[in-house]
C-alpha cells in the first residue's frame, strides 16, 4: 500500500513545541496550501492542512520557522476518531511529517540600533 503526501505551503502561525509525558518533542502546525486552479469566481482557494512533526524535526521547525514561513513536508496521512463530550464521534485527519524542508529565506532579525556617543566637535 502507498500512503505518501507532499505539501508546500505557509505556516498559519508560529509553531509551538510540546513535550509528551515520555519526553518526546512534538509540534502541531497548520499549513496553508493554495490550490492549483481558480474557482468559479476566479479566486484561488486555500486548504488548511493539519500536520504533526516529531522529535528533532519538531524542534528545528519551532526554532527556525515563524508564521508565514514556506515549508515543504513529505509524510503520510493518518486518521483517528474520538467521542466528544456530547457523545458525538469526531474524525480527525492529519499529515504526520517524515521530512520537512525550510523553503523561505532566513527571517531577518531586527537590528538593534546602537547609538554611538558623538565626540566633541562632531555634529
Secondary-structure map with pairings?
Elements: E1 5-11, E2 18-19, E3 25-38, E4 44-54, H1 55-64, E5 70-83, E6 89-102
Parallel strand pairs: 4-6
Antiparallel strand pairs: 1-3, 1-5, 2-3, 3-4, 5-6
What does this molecule look like?
- 8% of the residues lie in helices and 50% in strands.
- The chain has one helix and six strands.
- Mean pLDDT is 88; it is low at 110-120.
Low-confidence stretches: 110-120
Strand order in the largest sheet: 1-3-4-6-5
If you compute it from the alpha carbons, what radius of gyration comes out, rounded to the nearest whole angstrom?
21 Å
Biggest β-sheet strands, sense, barrel:
5 strands, mixed, barrel
Helix content: under 10%
Cα separation of the termini: 74 Å
Approximate shape:
globular
How many helices in DSSP terms?
1
Number of strands: 6
| Structural class estimated from helices and strands | mainly beta
Arithmetic mean of pLDDT: 88
Task: Explain briefly what this protein structure is.
With 123 residues, this protein is mainly beta. It contains 1 helix and 6 strands. The chain has a 5-stranded mixed beta barrel with strand order 1-3-4-6-5.
Identify the notable features of this structure and list them briefly:
globular; mainly beta; five-stranded mixed barrel; about 120 residues
Amino acid at each position: 500500500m502507498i500512503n505518501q503526501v507532499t505539501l508546500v505551503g505557509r505556516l498559519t502561525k508560529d509553531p509551538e513545541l510540546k513535550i509528551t509525558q515520555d519526553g518526546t518533542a512534538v509540534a502541531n502546525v497548520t499549513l496553508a496550501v493554495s490550490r492549483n486552479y481558480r474557482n468559479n469566481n476566479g479566486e484561488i482557494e486555500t486548504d488548511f492542512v493539519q500536520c504533526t512533526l516529531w522529535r528533532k524535526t519538531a524542534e528545528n521547525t519551532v526554532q527556525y520557522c515563524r508564521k508565514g514561513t514556506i515549508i515543504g513536508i513529505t509524510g503520510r496521512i493518518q486518521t483517528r476518531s474520538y467521542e466528544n463530550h456530547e457523545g458525538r464521534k469526531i474524525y480527525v485527519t492529519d499529515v504526520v511529517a517524515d521530512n520537512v524542508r525550510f523553503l523561505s529565506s532566513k527571517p531577518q532579525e531586527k537590528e538593534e540600533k546602537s547609538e554611538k556617543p558623538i565626540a566633541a566637535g562632531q555634529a
